[in-house]
Please model this.
Amino acid sequence: MKKVVKFGGSSLASAEQFRKVGAIIHAEKERRYVVPSAPGKRDSNDTKVTDMLYDCYHAAGRQDISRKIEAIAARYREIIEGLGLELNLDSEFETIQKKFEEQAGSDYAASRGEYLNGLIMSAYLEFPFVDAAEVVCFDEDGVFDGEKTNEVMRERLSGMETAVIPGFYGSMPDGSIKTFSRGGSDITGSIVARAVHADLYENWTDVSGFLVTDPRIVENPATIETITYRELRELSYMGATVLHADAIFPLRQEGIPVNIRNTNRPQDPGTLIVEDTCRQPLYTITGIAGKKGFCAVTIEKDMMNSEIGFGRKVLQVFEENGISFEHVPSGIDTFSVIVYQDDFMKKEQSIISGIHRAVSPDSLELESNLALIAVVGRGMRSTRGTAGRIFSALAHANVNVKMIDQGSSELNIIIGVKDEDFERAIRAIYDIFVLTHM
Ligand code: ASP
Model:
């Protein structure tokens, strides 16, 4: 049994947090490959080391950065001393300052957060250190090369019982450092999991898993026990994030499950993310997520349904204006296109006239300030009356439903409401499925 464990920034922000991580790793000998992030915030007013590095790098060449470097070094020293380690990073910081002054690149700068934390983790656990620059490959255009990485990483880790591989970065063919987008240590963890054929990828963070809905809207929402990759994709599209979206792909290739866990509450089982499962979800729905700020462009034309190419011509106008559409609910003689309002607004008049030219509609109407809510759940397929329950809950809560779109997978129902009804609608749906669950 092999587990890859990735720890986020808040799990490694101080010596105290490192100790919790050490205890977690030592609790199971299967936890063999460790992917650390850079030290994150110790409290809500603190600054992440990655942000300190970007800031310091941008100041380099314009001012003396010695004090900024010292502030970063102090963050690491506090951890090293707190753990009672012999490690000394002075020469690393000399190199870093020199490279910053030579403007070695902001990706190089940001990557040092993970690199140095990896050195500390390796010394603390007494696991060998593997520099991600040697095993995570980007091509000459800076695009991540998954297949090459998989080969190089697999080769390097084969025969290694344990290893610490810092997250977030790799290198290009010329050796220069390249990072993933922010939060990218999650991706490194999934790449390592794929390469070593891990049985489980544990992603340790500061929440006990994925919540059924946004805790800013519903107080203390239930935790999702098991969710499929597809359900996760539907919820993440609507803005619910715990795991970097690009982390899913390498895992899907191997069907490796991910367990989201809480470093501060290791007794909690967290959320398991899987390819598929026979386990019935606790509630009919798995999660509810949503976003505000959409706009619906509704076109009406008599006999539209018999006009071949109508939809294509309308969508082409959006395409020509560089606007991607989110949904297209349609009726017999009506056709709506749902778009992000901020993007659409810049092009609205050119799109309106474009549609007139393309399909000569009888009328065209805009409805702005819409929110979309996705109710997602594999359990909806086998349960009758889900839609009925959603709509009666919304009616009771006095929410006017503006749009309904059920995905063909029967995995989700998307509902459009006015922005001002958004929170009320989510609470009503949560209450009917989770609170009154029997
Ligand atoms: N340290 C990087 C960031 O702050 C990457 C990560 O934490 O995953 O985005």
About this structure: The longest strand covers residues 287-300. The first helix runs from residue 15 to 27.
